[in-house]
Amino acid sequence: MFSGSIDPHYAIAGFVVGALVGVTGVGGGSLMTPILIVLFGVSPATAVGTDLLFAAVTKTAGSLVHGFNRTIDWQVVRRLATGSIPTTALALLVLSWLNMRTGSANQIVTAVLAVALLLTAGALIARNRISKLYAQRMVNLNERSIARLTVAMGAMLGILVTFSSVGAGAIGVTALVLLYPLLPMARIVGSDIAHAVPLTLIAGLGHGLMGSVDLFTLMSLLAGSLPGIFVGSSISVRVPDAALRYVLAAALIVVGGKLALDLSAQPKTSVGVARMTPASQSGCKVGETVSTGSVAAERKGSASKFRPNC
Predict the structure, then answer these.
(1) Fewer CB under 10 Å: which end of the chain, C or N?
(2) CB 36 within 8 A of CB 245
(3) 105: pLDDT strictly greater than 80
(4) By CB neighbour count within 10 A (0-12 exposed, 13-18 middle, 19+ buried), where does 226 fall?
(5) More confident of the two residues 304 and 181
(6) Rounded Cα gap, residues 245 and 259, in angstroms
(7) Domain regions of the chain by residue span
(8) Helices 143-164, 44-68: inter-axial angle, 10-degree rounding
């Protein structure tokens, strides 16, 4: 029964993304979510929810390795989580409210995803330049200021990751490099991965409660990604990291730009906003208009159904 739920196309996509994550340490959410949307036609909300649980599983494995190697700074993880957990819960409430009232969750997710992809591309390209530009200023900060900035960074990541599943890798690592310039890179990466586990798990479970997780897709992705991460980690020392980061950034710019263009064309084919009536309180909308060109189009058999048809 389990083997029958594995789709080889999703497994191959999972393997490729897992291998890239193993080589570069980033790119999981920033690649997997666009692949699900652009290549497989998964709705943005379902792609984000599925990718969040995908990230929670894969990064749990990564954090176990870093924990065994003692390359996690738990104080940094606690500071990030102090900011991210409350904003993750808040973002989930906003998504739930938007979907119940207007059905516009997919549009919001697409907009945030496009911005997050472009920000991630910028972080990949300019990481070293940003570090050199602001490193001296960060060194002069006192411990209390660093703690506050870390909590604030966690809060921003909580919102960004919940809405788009993107940002915990490249953006999080870039921020930690600036805030903790004396911390070894291995501990920065390990701390970022460890923080991403509760963040993506809580956000993913929240998306699951809203019905925006496809478990069959999730299992297929994991079937490919776990061996992919192993292969990528094994060859990482032989692959030029800088070249891969620039290639990955270019791909993110293209996908982010495409999503932004698609979003700009949505007003003509978007989901109509329905007036709330007693009948709509039960889970059905009165007067709702849905275009056949809506971005919420899902592949047949998907587990993502936000509400019953009336």
Answers:
(1) N
(2) no
(3) no
(4) middle
(5) 181
(6) 21
(7) 3-282
(8) 140
